[in-house]
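Many introductory courses stop at the sequence. We go one step further.
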Amino acid sequence: MSRLIHTREDVLPVLGEVFREHGFEGASLSVITARTGLGKGSLYHFFPGGKEEMGQAVLAHIDGWFETEVYAPLRDDADPQAAIGHMLEAVDTYFRSGNRVCLVGALALNNSRDRFAAALAGYFARWRDALADALRRSGRAEAEALAEEAVVAIQGGLVIARALDDPGAFGRTLARLRTRLLA
């Protein structure tokens, strides 16, 4: 059953999945119109800047989710250990237990990287910094290095899960991180 799209916000999750499946460059307007059910006129009504504006909007949508579900709890929760546990659960859910590609990571690796450089860098830096803050507040030494290592492990776990067609690799990565981060 197709989903009704009434607002710009309604189309963002669909666009995100199209970009995940086809890459930014490979997501042609015909693929986008077929998946969204919107004609070119409606798409340009929502995104007058075309596909580049669509990409920026999708990245902002993803960033908003991560701000609410990951970064803010890591920064603000009075119990940093609980916030770290929540982060691991949230990313497992968001990445569908290793069955969903990280669009931000994928864009960082391809030719569209320069087009979205600020959004890509901000996503990873804010995640690393929020996690480092939670680790510092929980008394962990070398919080910055451990936080960077954790974000790298999550991203690498997604790549390995996809490359090996083994989503369990992502789950195993998260389990090791849980042990390491919550030690």
